[in-house]
Amino acid sequence: MSKIKDKILIILTVYHLVLIVMGFLLSPIEEIGVGLLNILKSPSILITDYIAIGGLGATFINAGLVGLVGVVVAYLSGVKVSGLVIAGVFTMSGFAMFGKNIFNIWPLIFGVYLFSRFTKRPLKNYIAPCLFGTTLAPTVSQTAFGLDFGIIWGIVIGIIMGMLVSALAKHVYSLHQGYNLYNVGTTGGIVGTIYYIMLKGFGFKISPVMHWSKEYTDLLFPILFVYFLSFIILGLFLDKNIDGLKKIIKESGRLITDFVEVGGLGSVLINMGILGLLGLTYVKLIGGDINGPVIAGVFTIIGFGALGKHIRNVLPIMFGVYLICIPKVWLHSEPGPTLAALFGTTLAPFSGRFGPLIGLLAGMLHLPMVMHVGEMHGYMNLYNNGFSGGLVAIIIVALLRDLKPHLIEEEMRY
């Protein structure tokens, strides 16, 4: 296990160093400094595409740095480095393309650390809230810069948010029974809603923003294609036998299913690469834009390619989102539906466990839900699709518990 841990840490480090190198290649040095400053000062609420705010170079460097923070935190916590850490680190770096930065993630991480000290439990017990809890990073930036409360208040609020996420995450799991992979996204939605309700009580209102770049699609597609393809090549180098991949595809993907344990690291990397190419191809086929939020969606898919997602269980969800757009209420290529098709794969365990029809239903329910829940938390929970996915999962699990109780009860585990 020590060798696997070392391999995973090295792979995660290298892939995020590559993002930093790409950043320096994509923009002049003088633009990168200004861009990073703009990113750090941004309120960062949904939807804030950091490429539109700070440029390509600064955004990729920010993503690489945030991902490396996740690697260091995981290493220092002493947690078993496996599928959960891979998912957490790539989700962090993905969302560092829109919403997380090297300033606003630290108060939340420190809040989780404080909670672990108060409960007298090791930080590794709270590694999921520590990595994924950065979903509420915009509470720090919005408080500090959007509401002009100042940096100190932003940090204080972030620490409180981190502690609350740590306290609630495991309890929220019991509501959806692991069929929503973005469990901390649901938790963040609840905590963010509480904070925003309090703000509204004092007369503060937050409106959504739309910073959405379109001009770099043709440049970013081949770069990301090669980046994701490299996962497959590396996976084949580590494991020429794809029997592990066959084992992964047979899994439902319900939390917590660690694909590194199921199929091995090589097969996990192949699975991640396939999912990355799938997400990228879907966006291209619908005529969507490739920018910070979309890259975040694809990065999150590949991250969870180590913890619950594979091509068999994500396709029905994506197709469900696609189908619900056909009546022309929303266009497939609009920001909301594009992101919902990517992030909505949080519900992949439904199709993995109950078949493609239930997966289609989950995807079709997810899009209308996610288009309207952002206002509840003041657009400060970056995993808005995780919040929506949790609500959809609660509904479906409740129905299945009555209609097919044996299918739910036989998998009651954490």
Tell me what the structure shows.
The protein has 21 helices and no strands. The protein is mainly α and 414 residues long. The longest helix is centred in the middle third of the chain and has 26 residues, at 151-176.
What's the layout of helices and strands?
Elements: H1 2-26, H2 29-41, H3 50-54, H4 56-77, H5 83-95, H6 106-118, H7 127-132, H8 137-146, H9 151-176, H10 183-201, H11 217-238, H12 243-250, H13 259-263, H14 265-285, H15 292-303, H16 311-325, H17 335-343, H18 348-354, H19 356-370, H20 384-403, H21 405-409
Helix pairs in contact: 1-4, 2-4, 4-5, 5-15, 6-9, 8-9, 9-10, 10-20, 11-14, 12-14, 14-15, 15-17, 16-17, 16-18, 16-19, 17-19, 18-19, 19-20
Task: Please supply descriptive tags for the structure shown above.
414 residues, mainly alpha, 2 domains, 21 helices, globular
As residue ranges, the low-confidence spans are none
- Summed over residues and divided by their number, the pLDDT gives a mean of 95
Number of domains: 2
* Helical amount: over 70%
Please give the number of β-strands: 0
- How far apart, in Å, are the first and last alpha carbons? 22 Å
Task: List SSEs in N-to-C order.
Answer: HHHHHHHHHHHHHHHHHHHHH
Shape: globular
The secondary structure category is: mainly alpha
Number of helices: 21
* Portion in beta strands: under 5%
Biggest beta sheet attributes? none
